[in-house]
Amino acid sequence: MNKTLKPAIVVLLVILAVGAMTLFSGSGGGKEIIPWRTDLAVARAEAARTHRNVLIDFTASWCGPCQNMRRGAWSDPAVAAALGNVIPVQIDVDQHGDIAQEFGVNGIPNLVLLDEKGAVLKTNVGFMSPGEFIAWLGR
HEC states along the chain? Predict the structure, then answer.
């Protein structure tokens, strides 16, 4: 290989590596930044006390679209900001089938927005991008 091409190839490989890391890390690096609660009763009490809505995210570790939500919407700073006045609760349907049944969950991801008194304001079943989620939330 030509000695003058070696430095150019090394620089090109570094640029490609940095670009790939940026591309695959996405917003927030795929790490959730939402301060999820896991106890719905505690979240409901907090909502009543603070006059805030509750967002329930029914999910499971084996659910592909749920994991896409984790890497997408739940890792997006704009989504975290939109949830600033909402109490987020994540419920694993395998661990809390009774709660899932109480809300009629038959597909996941399943989002339920409750008012401070526990009344269902709206629901959504299926994956949502960060923009779609923010629009759905109404923020």
Answer: CCCCHHHHHHHHHHHHHHHHHHHHHCHHHHCCCCCCECCHHHHHHHHHHHCCEEEEEEECCCCHHHHHHHHCHHHCHHHHHHCCCEEEEEEECCCCHHHHHHCCCCCCCEEEEECCCCCEEEEEECCCCHHHHHHHHCC
| Domain that includes residue 23, residue range | 1-30
Question: What's the structural domain count of the chain?
Answer: 2
Clarify whether residues 26 and 2 are in a common domain. yes
67 and 131 fall within a common domain: yes
pLDDT tens digit sequence for 8-24: 454 444 444 433 333 33
